[in-house]
Amino acid sequence: MATVLMCRRLPRLSRVAAFTTTAERGSGKSKKEKRDKPGAAKTGTESGVTIQLLKPQDYRVLYNPAAYAKGRAGSQQHVDRDSSQALGDAFTSPGTTQTLPTASSQALAPARNARPKPKFSRLLDQTILATLCKEEAEKEKGEMHDSKEDPRMFQKGRPEYRSLSCDSTEPAQTLPAEEGDSILQSVAGGEASPGILRDYFLKLSRLPAERRAALPSDPRFGALCHRAVTAIRLFSTPDLIQLLKACVPLAVPASHPLLNACEAEFCRRAWDMGLEQLLLVADCWRCLDRSVPSYLGILFSYANLHWKELTLPQFVQLLYIIGEGRRSPADLAQKVESTILKHLDAFTLEELGTICLGLFKSLSGISAHVMRRIADRVSLQMEDMSTYALVNVLKMLRYTRMDHLPLMRELGKVIPARIPATNIQGIMHITLTYSSLHFFDEDVLAAVAASLPSKVSYCRSKDAAKFLWSFGCLDYEPPNEEEFYSSLIKQLHVKLHEFRRFPEHLLTALLGLAFVKRFPEELIDFALREEFVEKTRGSKYELNKDLFTLGKSVEIECPTYQGSQLPPQLCQEFTEMVSSFAEREIYIRPEIVEATSLLESMLGGPEYVKNHMILPHTRSCDLEVRLATDGHPIPFNFKDPVAAKMKDMGVSLTDDLMSQLIQGRAHSQSPTEVGNEGRIHRHDRGDAAGPMLVDGATPQSEPKAGCWQPGEVRLALQVSNRNHFCYSSKRLLGLHCLKRRQLRLLGYEVLEIPFWEWFPLLKRTRSEKLSYLHYKVFCPALLSRAA
């Protein structure tokens, strides 16, 4: 077999200089300082050697144990093999290469004159390689999420589930293949009763797996199925259920005529069946991967009428079926909640996980009270809960926006040690929980970052995107940041073809990278190409704001970038779209209105202050003030439509409004808050790239650095709120770090008016508020720096 060695250039990666914010950064600050020290390790920037094996058609190499000699676990068999879908000249075709560290090439000594190894040595090598293969196979099995079987683990917890579920495991006693042939031969021997046909299917379902796999293409099996279809109405209900159960190990295709006939017959008989039978049949449909919306509709209606008869296992099985069917019957919502509370202490921990997963998959709403009760119990028994069940609870926790501090604190103690043994999708959901709830826990994030590089080949495009988004959203760069980010960026290249179907995942990933000042230019060039922008227009998600943020961020932070850019008319369209939202929702916020009014009074009039978005793509407003170096304010705002509107608008700072501003709302949200959070929280379900929190915009051109008048100081005052920071901390989220960094790059002095200082002042006297703002604007240190 020929071996070709070639060098591959790593993707270009722009890194901009680090800028700190005046807001506190928490425990991650030391990590940033380490990053910028000269001589720090840059493991992700080493050049590599690519080994490309030229192999005959259809020849597959399942394992290459030599690749793991250095402890690397980069199995490439998980890479999608579709080189025809490469979407750019800069990207290599996935699935055909393996990249090794440069140091590894030293071990590839020429074998031309090597002496043959002794027999014992060869046997030892073979044993070692076989062991490595076995270990890799076990690791692969652990990483592979079985979307059909994993959610069914709860059924092993109670014997009652045996009558409610279909056992899809291998039969204890297999039938000899010869007996199977005898059954198929007898099909041509005349009529057979429904009982005999049932027995035929049950016996065939016990054949060895390789023999069962050949049955669908066997004409004799087709004839048997045809007989069953013809006699379908003659089967008793128990016999028909047994026939359907036999179809599961027989792997009858979901669209098979036999299953069509069975579904129609079960729908006809459903109202004459018992709830146990109905749930068992629904479970069989799930095992057969057949969508049966009509049958499920009947099941849900039947359950609604017989709700008081539901046992605890029947209720959990019903919630499982609801989740797998991705349907949320609205008329059951209240009954589901009351039943959860009724049995809350009796559920096993696995059953609680199943209930949460069913609600999550079906997008069923659940009250904060019920979710809090579930979280209360989980936080007390978390160590006894499987990681899979725990992750399902976390999915529902973030879906309901539940800020349950005891659970999150306990999670921070329990989960770091479990991360190495958790599969990649589980780790992704854990990480996404922290970012979507804006909860920063360095121990958890560091554990994720340490485990991820060795697992990265198992990442789907969605997983890689969510990891990058989560770390960027929380503005955290781990101790192994170069290895962490370089491995994920390489995986984005490998999965590039998937972005044809899921453009939102690429934007999610690139925004997460932009938050932490990383700009992989080849991927950005691809994302800003006209054809990709068109694909985002066809997405079910609104991606315009994400494109806008990415495109403008590259303009500001990557001056040497020469790739694709967004057209000016598209940027103007996006700006106007964000501006429209700002005028409805942002500029009228009482804390911003009050600060604007007081600054106008302090500085001499509305022409000295402008409430607008200096950088529309960052989606939050600024109060801009301009000063001469001697401290005198400079008038500049002579045509501000927002200021004109504010003069006709009154906002009363009532006691109720003030308590909301100062204390926040733990269990409810205002319509404005709900509107804002809706624009970030679809990230939380793992469905899309999605825009972040939007604070508003004005249609204007972004300023260019160096356009200042001589002796002019431009201030950008940031009136922040809780949504700009991590939960219960002073650590800015990634988007708001990006904004402040870019304002400084453009020459602005960024002044913080943080909510923990400003909101309490809103109830104080006018003179106290003016004194506070005067100190912020006319800070001597600021003016001396400008001078």
TrEMBL record:
Keywords: Mitochondrion. InterPro entries: FAST_2 (IPR013579), FAST_kinase (IPR050870), FAST_Leu-rich (IPR010622), RAP (IPR013584). GO terms for cellular component: mitochondrial matrix; ribonucleoprotein granule. GO terms for biological process: mitochondrial RNA processing; regulation of mitochondrial mRNA stability. GO terms for molecular function: RNA binding. Transmembrane segments: none annotated. Residues 18-48, 71-119 are annotated as: Disordered. Its main location: mitochondrion. Residues 93-107 have a biased composition (Polar residues). PANTHER family: FAST KINASE DOMAIN-CONTAINING PROTEIN 5, MITOCHONDRIAL, FAST LEU-RICH DOMAIN-CONTAINING. This is FAST kinase domains 5. It comes from Catharus ustulatus (Russet-backed thrush). The gene is FASTKD5.
